[in-house]
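Illustration: L-ribulose-5-phosphate 4-epimerase.
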Amino acid sequence: MKIDKAKKLVRDTGIRLLKAGLIARSWGNISQRIDEDHFVITPTGRTYEDLKPDEIVQVNRHDLTHTGRIKPSYEKGLHAAAYKLRSDIGAVIHTHQLQASVVAAAHREIPVLDNEMKKVIGGPIYCTSYSLPGTKKLIRMAIEALDRSGSKAVLLANHGTLCIGQDMEDAFNVALVLERICKTFIEREFLKVSGKRNASRESIRDWYVQNFGVEVKA
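Result:
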């Protein structure tokens, strides 16, 4: 893919993720493979609303060096490792999306729950153990989890998610389906623990007040 097209695609995907409620401010990072040896990735510390295509940074997949004066995301090593894992991976999205982050904070894994999950994500969603963001340990655990599951998503404990795809549209859809699946998983777990018949906001709030004595606003 031509670099200018890849940069615009990354920037446009950031706006789509914002509108979908899957990222906020400068959180998370997005990358697009441009050839066998390089990818482009969002820079560090730039908000998606103000990000311009020419601020997207080209990175060498092998040694993580970058082109230009703008620094790439410090998660560039995680993206590089994902591209190394599978030659058919064309895009990588790392988010801190709400429902998935809740499951990641609980260190839970999610089996295949429905046909859409199987079709889009490809398998179960594993969760790594905790390690600091950007570290070699976290990268290793995330890639091992993707490799073992054969799926396109992994939960990073107490951190967020990593979604991969054959192209950017595929990776975006993985993030969308992942959020829905995590919400479904949370609701099912609530029903098991609470004995309630439904997982409405009112039901969850009432159960919380009953067990913890502190009312939360809906």
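Reading the tokens back as a structure: The helical segments are 3-19, 76-85, 98-105, 115-120, 136-149, 168-194, 201-212.
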